[in-house]
Amino acid sequence: MEIVFTLNGKPKAIQAEAGENVQVLLKRLGMRAVRNSDDGYGFAGSDTILLDGCSVNASLLIAAQLDGREVVTPESLNEYGKLSPVQSALIDAGVIQSGYNDPALALLITDLFKRSPNPTKAEITDVMSSIFLRESAYQQVYDAVDIARQRLFDPDYVANSVPSFAGEHRQVGKPGGKVDAARSIKAEPCFVEDFVASDACVLKMLRSPHAHAYITRIDTRDAQAMPGVVAVFDHRNCPDVYYTPGGQTAPEPSPLDRRMFGQKVRHYGDRVAAVVAETEAQAEAALKAIKVEYEVLKPVLSIKEAMAEDAPIVHNGVISYSVGAPDDLDEQNRTADLRDGRIHFNFPFGGDPKKNIAARGHGEIGDIEQGFAEADVILERTYQSRQSQQLPPEQHLCYTYMEGDRIIVRAATQVPWHVRRKIAIVLGLKQHKVHVIKERLGGGFGSKQDILVEEVCAFATHTTGRPVLFRHTREEEFIATSTRHVAEIDIKMGAKKDGTITAFDVNFRFNTGPYGNHALTVPCNAPAISLPLYPCPNVRFKVDTYYSNIVPTGAYQGYGGPKGNFAVQMIVAEMADALGIDHLEMIEKNRVREGQKLDLLGKVGEGKLPSKVPTAYSCALGPILEQGAAGFGWGTPKEEPENPHIKIGRGVATMQQKSGIPDIDQANAWVKLASDGTVIVHSGGADIGTGLDTVVAKLTAEVLCTELSDIHVISGDTDHCLFDKGAYASSGTCFSGNAARLAAEDLRGKILKTAAHLLAEPVDELVMEYPGVVQGKQKSISFGDIAHYAESGTGCGQLMGQGSFITSEFAFPYGANFAEVAVDTRTGKVSLRKFHALLDCGTPINPELALGQIYGASMRAIGHTLQEAIQYDEQGRVLNANFADYGAPMVGDLPEDFQAFLVPSDDPVGPYGAKSVSEISVNAAAPAIASAIHDATGVWVRDWHITPEKMLNALKNEEAGSWSEL
């Protein structure tokens, strides 16, 4: 059928299929900004368009509804070489991270200005209510709207809403916008979906309806015979290779317990079979033709069930070790069921699959018994957490195709080099036959550290020779990707009457789900990130990680820290209450201080112990707590609500993270001088929207005294860059940034040496000056002239610098959250009135992006605390595998008073004093809010997320005179 309409001001006549989805249609017409985040639910808003001047979701329309109408997409804002006032304002305010949903946001704000030249906060909030911003959250959008309003009247208006930390630096610490933000706000090709060829096949996955079962029969003959079907894969014709989805440095500290397809399915949504077909419709039709019979087993859903004597065994396969096999291995394997496959440990880390144990760890310093003997008060508590989802706006996806005998992998991944290695292992290839190109990520938050789509997509292409796209649906995001581990933590703490902590004894139990990716490292990070906040001479901890049949867990921002910190911060708050000491005073008395050795961290690592006891070389917790208390009004009278059912309370919690993993991580970079004196950086780092490419560019420009605009960064490409372990463990700025700094310094030395030759002056008498000039005592020479000589027939060859960064030293960021809540004792609803997040990330290299990451991470943590959790039925089926039912926070859930602050310090490990920023900010919201709830109601809620139902039950128990806890 022919459809005639106006598209971005131009008449359009097209042929459309009856019932064709408008989002699909517009993508076909080259409108990349109209993206699909939610499979047509109309929740995320990434498919927003204007239809006859009204904002609508394109995925909720069919093509016939466009006939005779006017359609406006975010591309309407684009002008070559320029940014619109709204687009530039979103960049300057720090809103743009991945940029996946931001073109739609720009369209909505632009439309708002047409209707209301001076929009109110309520009008801005109303506009944002139709879009899901998971990364920078919503707070900075209000600043962006104000900047845009100014620029509509004065195009040259310069925003000054973001503080500068540049000091004497020209680039570092100075607000300036992301170097790649214009590309994403304009929806230029940058995401994986933007590069998929029109003839690419589609891979669709048949997933298990059971949480625990053996496949007894599978018949794919009818599916293989269907029109358009290219191939069907299942456990009978996939590589017999076992690996871990976790993208970590080899040898991985996770059991190799996953096969591409197994005869046993271990969670609701586990892989059963895959269909590769010419079209999505053909692939989905073929999935329905696959016949599968199961022997259904009892699912193991909780830690308690996994620990039971008669618990079903999740992994009852043949066990093997690379080194350190236990003496009774043959006995363990005697009862193995071949249908369970195999499980391999690269080295011993406490795994005991026959008891559903994936990993174990422990550590101790001092004399724990003596510590408790010195205590005047001893508390013992149990704290619990729930399973939450990362919810990146862009689903997991991968596009693969052949170039000769090489496989090209366009991936939305945090770990391109680990993806290359794992694909090569699974497919039986040499690594040089695999080329991974990390495209822009539409959010990851740790979930894209795991290899969840890439290996099966690559296998499909390598087997068929066809280009293949594999993209998760939003439901698959909930049931088949990594989520946050579930934890139960028993903690015992002793303290003297004056508040001095004398001992901690902690038992961490984690539920890793069906596969053991990160089963050692996430749980061990729980004590590592929490207990050193309160350095104590007597500490003991134990970690046990259990297999189960919940949907998979893995890496999630915070990486064990939020669970451990919830328990430690809460028991400190409870101890302060028991001793009658102000909570903030209790923290200040016992907190970590700058220059302090963190003895406990010498006893816990991520696969191996640190080579030396770490030191907190920089720590601004003192100024943070002082500034935070003053700004928050800590200790001042609280408001008395008119409604007696509303109770007001305040809480506080501190937090810590790392900046990479010393002795394990490595990053590398090249910096080369182009013929005109400009600079190209080849960074192995994987920018996942956080601004790492901007960090690399700024550090390079700072070292070389040149313009930021004269730096171009190529990153995350396994053919064109050097190895980098990837974007995880908060390592980007410290590791990838330091590698770029070292490479720039190497190039700087070569430029000066060449200039000395050309100027006939000693190197030590030359000075590199801005912009890109070497100044001698007699005369100067530009980078361009130096580069021209180097590349001439008598020159020394193109000038390049190389940097490799490893370290045994730690750089710890610190922070605190202050929260004020209002609890409605009739309904149990907890409203967040005030939330202030203060963070020490050393020298903030990109201040506006750092603030955006604090806002975004804080909002995710607030969501996990009050709203978000995956829900199951008794059979292990997920009940809320969609945006609407899951309950992630939107703009209406913002705290009434929401502020983020950067409190600088100077760290000797990070480049120019910088430390990590984004991941730490998820670690303190839950205990800050929970302690505020106690301040308001007298109730300690120890099981988060904290729903109205839990709150009401706790209040009822308190009224009945029973123990005030839940």
Give a description of the structure.
This protein is of the alpha+beta class. The protein is built from 25 helices and 34 strands. Strands 8-10-6-19-16-17-18 form a seven-stranded mixed sheet, with helices on both faces. Strand 16 and strand 17 (406-411) form a beta hairpin. Helix 15 (521-530) runs parallel beside helix 16 (561-579). It starts with a strand and ends in a 7-residue tail after the last helix.
Summarize the helices and strands and which ones pair or pack.
Elements lengths: L1 E6 L2 E6 L6 H7 L19 E4 L2 E4 L12 E3 L12 H8 L9 H14 L5 H8 L10 H15 L27 H5 L15 E7 L5 E7 L1 H4 L4 E5 L30 E2 L5 E7 L2 H10 L1 E6 L6 H5 L10 E4 L7 H6 L7 E4 L11 E9 L2 H6 L3 E9 L11 E7 L2 E6 L4 H12 L6 E5 L15 H11 L3 E4 L2 H7 L5 E10 L5 E13 L7 H10 L8 E9 L13 H19 L3 H8 L30 H12 L13 E11 L10 E7 L5 E5 L8 H13 L6 E5 L16 H28 L7 E3 L3 E3 L4 E3 H8 L9 E6 L8 E11 L5 E11 L6 H20 L16 H4 L10 E6 L22 H13 L5 E2 L3 H12 L7
Parallel strand pairs: 1-5, 6-19, 12-13, 15-34, 17-18, 21-22, 25-26, 32-33
Antiparallel strand pairs: 1-2, 3-4, 3-5, 6-10, 7-9, 7-11, 8-10, 14-22, 15-20, 16-17, 16-19, 20-21, 23-31, 24-25, 24-30, 27-28, 28-29, 31-32
Helix pairs in contact: 2-5, 3-4, 12-13, 15-16, 16-24, 19-20, 20-21
How would you describe the shape?
A: globular
C-alpha end-to-end distance: 61 Å
Structural class: alpha+beta
Helical percentage: 25-40%
Strand order of the largest sheet: 8-10-6-19-16-17-18
Largest sheet: 7 strands, mixed
Instruction: Output the radius of gyration.
Output: 28 Å
Number of strands: 34
